[in-house]
Amino acid sequence: MELRTLGKSDVKITPIILGTWQAGKKMWVGIEDEDSIKAIRSAFDAGITTVDTAAIYGDGHSERIVGQALADVRDQVVYATKVWCANLKYDQVIAACHQSLQNLKTDYIDLYQIHWPSGNFKTEIVPIEETMGALVKLQEQGKIRAIGVSNFTTAQMAEAAQFGRIDSLQPPYSLFWRPVETDQMPYCVDNDISIIAYSALAQGLLTGKFGLNHQFAEGDHRSKNKLFADRENYQRVQAALAQLRPIAESYQCTLAQLSLAWLIAQPQTSAIVGVRNAEQAVSNAKAAAVKLSSEDLAKIDAIGHTVTDNLDDNQVMWDF
Predict the structure, then answer these.
(1) Most buried residue, 47, 100, 211, 313, by CB count within 10 Å?
(2) How far apart are CA 278 and CA 269, in angstroms?
(3) Environment class of 313 (CB within 10 Å of its CB; exposed 0-12, middle 13-18, buried 19+)
């Protein structure tokens, strides 16, 4: 699989990135550690050598599973993890990084990201200068190679960039969720900041496996996702999927692979994709080989807008 440069750093990432929120188990159902480890390893074997996790995913459990799955090939993989918004004071960032290093069984993190700006989820507001000061210090010590932010607006990125180089933004971004295109993307393109899209398959919607009357199991956070919860939105989604299926068939690929191929063809964008099993990991990796014509990229783009043009400007996907 081709490698791409992360921002202005010397880190090289794959266009398809393995997401491991599920591996943390919390807020998901039916997840077993053995299956997560097999999926992570299968993704690696299929060429996905960049893995995204976070300290908050199962209170470190996801990080520990990643470390367990890939410790013997650490020198061949890129680890991206995140510090939670309740831990953004200087000393807290340092401590959180050391805990993540321990969880991941490594002495360096390739990409260390601020998961949410301070103040989110009723956390204490910490000056970004203080947080960035800790991240720059960790970078100088060689404990992290690159600094990223997640769920930041353009203004928040610009402020953070005054105190250290930002190499990536991790926003929610998929064919069915696109506020980043009009807000942060122009800034990222102008400043060589990589876009690492999470919920790249709209939390599974773009696989086409959820029918019109799908009900999530109790405890599955996707029941609060606006794309699923609003019935009018959900009907528009199903209509769009019906239009996408013939295009996928013409490329002899799945709906998921088509949607990922469209996403990684967008400016400076790579896609994080979560998996539950080895088969999904292998299938997602194949999306990197799907090369869409400019005509089909435009057609897919227009179909996506039949869903997104009816959404509000709020970039948060869930009504928690």
Answers:
(1) 100
(2) 24
(3) exposed
Would residue 194 count as lying in a domain?
yes
Q: Give the largest Cα separation in the chain, rounded.
A: 54
**Structural tokens at position 310:** 């009816």
Find the domain containing 36 and state its range: 4-207+254-290
Determine what percent of the chain falls in helix, strand and coil, rounding each to the nearest 5: 45, 15, 40
- Whether the CB-CB separation of 123 and 117 falls below 8 Å is answered with no
Domain assignment present for 219: no
d(CA 271, CA 293): 19
Q: How far apart are CA 63 and CA 182, in angstroms?
A: 33
What is the per-residue pLDDT across 95-119, written as a single tens digit (0 to 9) for each? Answer: 999 999 999 999 999 999 999 999 9
**Torsions phi, psi for 231 (to 5 deg):** -65, -35
Residues 171 and 184: beta-carbon distance below 8 Å? yes
Per-residue pLDDT reduced to its tens digit, 257-268: 999 999 999 999
Q: Which residues pair with 272 in a beta bridge?
A: 17
State how many domains the chain has: 1
Q: Is residue 182 part of a domain?
A: yes
57 among known catalytic residues: yes
The CATH number of residue 190's host domain is: 3.20.20.100
pTM over 0.90: yes
Among candidate residues 57, 79, 173, 234, the one labeled active-site is 57
**Is 242 inside any structural domain?**
no
Mean pLDDT value across residues 116-137: 97
pLDDT digit string, tens, across residues 146-183: 999 999 999 999 999 999 999 999 999 999 999 999 98
